[in-house]
Fold this sequence. Notes:
The chain is mainly β. The protein has one domain (6-122): Acid Proteases (Cathepsin D, subunit A, domain 1, Beta Barrel), CATH 2.40.70.10. The protein is 10% helix and 42% strand. It contains three helices and 13 strands, in the order βαβββαβββββαββββ. The chain has a six-stranded mixed barrel. Strands 10, 11, 12 and 13 form a four-stranded antiparallel β-sheet that branches. The longest helix has 6 residues, at 53-58. The radius of gyration is 15 Å and the shape is globular. The N and C termini lie far apart (46 Å). Mean pLDDT is 84; it is low at 1-5.
Amino acid sequence: xxxxxxEEDIPEISFxxxxxxxxxxxxxxxxxxxxxxxxxxxxxxxxxxxIDQSTxxxxxxxxxxxxxxxxxxxxxxxxxxxxxxxxxxxSIQGIIVRADFFVLPVAACxxxxxxxxxxxLGPIKTDYKKLIMSFxxxxxxxxxxxxxxxxxxx
Length: 154
């Protein structure tokens, strides 16, 4: 049996994130890249972070193109990644996110924060009824109460 190391993990984006299927329990938030507002989907069904190709172009981001990377879609389809944006900074409700993103045409939103980002937070408290989440980031608690929790846009 072969053990797959994290470096060999095949990136996967959820079908909902790729095509825009909306669910009531979807964490869709507004963030900023520089001075530009971006819609961000926080998606535990996606293994990595993704940014929409047209958004990357609009923001003037440097896209690193290298060997072809295939991304698995939640429905088991395969699409080719256009490249990667490294070290992109987003501000989401006062929380700074610095992460690497695969570049794809994403219909559901302009960026997807997947497990690659979520796992950096440690324990996360999520209330799907109120659609809020709280967590610690760099020792700072975000969301001790509903007022300062990360909340979705409606």
